[in-house]
């Protein structure tokens, strides 16, 4: 069974006001002083209002949920020492002027990309799924392309931007795709072509290094994994687990198709950009584009196609029933973006929405 690891980026917010709070250096120092795992699990991100943690590689999704709940709770514990709380929000609902971390890399990014860098107070969820080799990994990348935007729609958790309703369910993905190396990618075919493409992109001088290859999915530079990068950070841990479950199902299904000699779908990156935009705009309210025909369809039909596609792989890991129930629950009740808007519609101002979402972030047991 393939292992899965999850990286979650959380927003640090003032416990009293709900405004993003530039205290990640203090939070990381608190974690480091405690020693043990916490000093290694938590990492800084581009802006001081963010905090990232990574789970261990796991095979059991029940254990994955426990890890996510645990580290969200630990993040809250260290944040409280700086009068902050953590919120699993992919963008800030309230207006913010982010504070960039110091350091040569971040300084270079700010000079190179100007306003784009300043705007990137965005929090995502990255899923690492183990692969046996670069050859298998590239075969997987080629075959999961038409399905990835459905993970973005399912995770969509960023309806608000700078104090306004963006009209999108995942506005984070629109902001993220302002990076010149982000988004859908063309077919690679072989590891040589993949690595040549990465090298050529870096050699243009537009990117600092290969760490700035922000494809929707890529070969990890540090682990023997495919890293799927399309999801918003999810408001509730159960959604994160569902995204991880489906990501592993997609990787396993793609690897089996490759071994069986099935070619990848020859859909262009241009069409996938349109499908990605549609998913970010609609989220779980629909419509979406069908992952096979790329014609407009209902959300129910799109996710039926996804479940049919990964059914065998999920059955083999024992995750099929949970995935079906998880998708059905999200289609019936909505996801993070719907939850945020519902809180606003109940009469909460956006600062109170943030504080309510912070409570949801660490409420799971």
TrEMBL record:
Keywords from the named record: ATP-binding, Ligase, Nucleotide-binding
Keyword ATP-binding: yes
EC supergroup of this enzyme: ligase
GO biological process: modified amino acid biosynthetic process
Database matches in InterPro entries: GCL_type2/YbdK_subfam (IPR050141), GCS2 (IPR006336), Gln_synth/guanido_kin_cat_dom (IPR014746), YbdK (IPR011793)
Entry's EC annotation: 6.3.2.2
GO MF annotation terms: ATP binding; glutamate-cysteine ligase activity
Pfam entry (one): GCS2
Reaction equations catalysed: L-cysteine + L-glutamate + ATP = gamma-L-glutamyl-L-cysteine + ADP + phosphate + H(+)
Function: ATP-dependent carboxylate-amine ligase which exhibits weak glutamate--cysteine ligase activity.
Family of this protein: Belongs to the glutamate--cysteine ligase type 2 family. YbdK subfamily.
Protein name from the UniProt record: Putative glutamate--cysteine ligase 2
Protein species of origin: Streptomyces cinereoruber
